[in-house]
């Protein structure tokens, strides 16, 4: 193994042993959102099997000589079959490699990490799971949107916009979701945005409910669209927003008017320091 320049704080970091697979989240994009366990894995892996959503910069941190294997799965593009990826991981481990399976966001959030880990364990391959920051939480935070906010919601639902076949999620109970959660965070929702909008409107969510669409969250290319439920489909098209994007539905989106910290960093003033009309700081309430 080539000596890596990636240094870690001193401590007893786990060793990635030959024949093991570490299933690891890479976060939503910004390399600074990697965990220390992920860095520790990058330093030791013989081979990294990575997804489309894992950034090149992160991969470039792997020591020279690390084998990089692309196993992307992106809607519309030719991609490896899930079973093939899982079995490829089994083969690499059985060949005695130290395997890092690197996935965008968190491996267990709409990332099929559970399936891969299950297959590995079924084949007797030892695994370690390293969580990552999921786009639906960290990506929204980069847009200045808190997924929970005391004045808005006591629960949040993470929803996938399409099912296993790539079609709109037919089994989603939009009414139950609407009743249960003041804030809905929708992954993979761009393709089926009209179905999502219609489902939520039919379930009784207000037409003027705030919606944010955050594409390429946490990356320099991040774009944020603020819109409403009834206008979102048209506005997404007009803005030319492309996946990957997170759709956030709910009044938490309004908090961006005060919490858009990237705009503040650029020297802009907050648009509205009290977007929910509370009148005073919550802590004093
Ligand atoms: N395991 C990942 C999700 C994989 S599903 C996680 O925890 O984040 C892929 C979906 O994640 C995309 O369609 C998009 O909705 C979302 N996503 C991932 N990275 C993103 C990013 N940088 N910006 C916006 N959305 C992202």
Automatic annotation (TrEMBL):
<keyword id="KW-0169">Cobalamin biosynthesis</keyword>
<keyword id="KW-0808">Transferase</keyword>
<dbReference type="InterPro" id="IPR014776">
    <property type="entry name" value="4pyrrole_Mease_sub2"/>
</dbReference>
<dbReference type="InterPro" id="IPR035996">
    <property type="entry name" value="4pyrrol_Methylase_sf"/>
</dbReference>
<dbReference type="InterPro" id="IPR006366">
    <property type="entry name" value="CobA/CysG_C"/>
</dbReference>
<keyword id="KW-0627">Porphyrin biosynthesis</keyword>
<keyword id="KW-0489">Methyltransferase</keyword>
<keyword id="KW-0949">S-adenosyl-L-methionine</keyword>
<protein>
    <recommendedName>
        <fullName>uroporphyrinogen-III C-methyltransferase</fullName>
        <ecNumber>2.1.1.107</ecNumber>
    </recommendedName>
</protein>
<comment type="pathway">
    <text>Cofactor biosynthesis; adenosylcobalamin biosynthesis; precorrin-2 from uroporphyrinogen III: step 1/1.</text>
</comment>
<dbReference type="InterPro" id="IPR050161">
    <property type="entry name" value="Siro_Cobalamin_biosynth"/>
</dbReference>
<dbReference type="GO" id="GO:0004851">
    <property type="term" value="F:uroporphyrin-III C-methyltransferase activity"/>
</dbReference>
<dbReference type="InterPro" id="IPR000878">
    <property type="entry name" value="4pyrrol_Mease"/>
</dbReference>
<dbReference type="InterPro" id="IPR003043">
    <property type="entry name" value="Uropor_MeTrfase_CS"/>
</dbReference>
<dbReference type="GO" id="GO:0032259">
    <property type="term" value="P:methylation"/>
</dbReference>
<dbReference type="Pfam" id="PF00590">
    <property type="entry name" value="TP_methylase"/>
</dbReference>
<comment type="similarity">
    <text>Belongs to the precorrin methyltransferase family.</text>
</comment>
<dbReference type="GO" id="GO:0009236">
    <property type="term" value="P:cobalamin biosynthetic process"/>
</dbReference>
<dbReference type="InterPro" id="IPR014777">
    <property type="entry name" value="4pyrrole_Mease_sub1"/>
</dbReference>
<comment type="pathway">
    <text>Porphyrin-containing compound metabolism; siroheme biosynthesis; precorrin-2 from uroporphyrinogen III: step 1/1.</text>
</comment>
<feature type="domain" description="Tetrapyrrole methylase">
    <location>
        <begin position="21"/>
        <end position="231"/>
    </location>
</feature>
<dbReference type="GO" id="GO:0019354">
    <property type="term" value="P:siroheme biosynthetic process"/>
</dbReference>
């Amino acid at each position: 193994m080539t000596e890596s320049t990636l240094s870690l704080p001193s401590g007893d970091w786990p060793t990635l042993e030959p024949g093991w697979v570490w299933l690891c989240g890479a976060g939503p994009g910004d390399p600074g959102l990697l965990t220390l366990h992920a860095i520790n894995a990058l330093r030791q892996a013989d081979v990294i099997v990575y997804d489309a959503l894992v950034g090149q910069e992160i991969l470039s941190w792997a020591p020279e000589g690390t084998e990089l294997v692309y196993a992307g799965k992106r809607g519309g593009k030719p991609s490896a079959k899930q079973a093939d990826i899982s079995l490829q991981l089994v083969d690499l481990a059985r060949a005695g490699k130290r395997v890092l399976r690197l996935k965008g966001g968190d491996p267990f959030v709409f990332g099929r990490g559970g399936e891969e880990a299950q297959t590995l364990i079924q084949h007797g391959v030892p695994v370690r799971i390293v969580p990552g920051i999921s786009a639906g939480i960290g990506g929204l935070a980069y847009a200045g949107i808190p997924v929970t906010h005391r004045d808005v919601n006591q629960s949040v639902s993470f929803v996938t916009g399409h099912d296993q076949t790539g079609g709109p999620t037919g089994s989603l109970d939009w009414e139950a979701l609407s009743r249960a959660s003041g804030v809905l965070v929708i992954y993979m929702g761009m393709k089926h945005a009209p179905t999502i909008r219609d489902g939520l409107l039919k379930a009784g969510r207000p037409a003027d409910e705030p919606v944010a669409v955050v594409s390429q969250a946490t990356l320099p290319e991040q774009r944020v669209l603020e819109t409403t439920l009834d206008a979102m489909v048209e506005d997404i098209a007009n803005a030319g927003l492309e996946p990957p994007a997170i759709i956030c539905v709910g009044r938490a989106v309004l908090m961006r008017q005060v919490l858009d910290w990237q705009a503040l960093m650029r020297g802009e003033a907050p648009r509205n320091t009290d977007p929910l009309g509370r009148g005073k700081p919550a802590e004093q309430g």
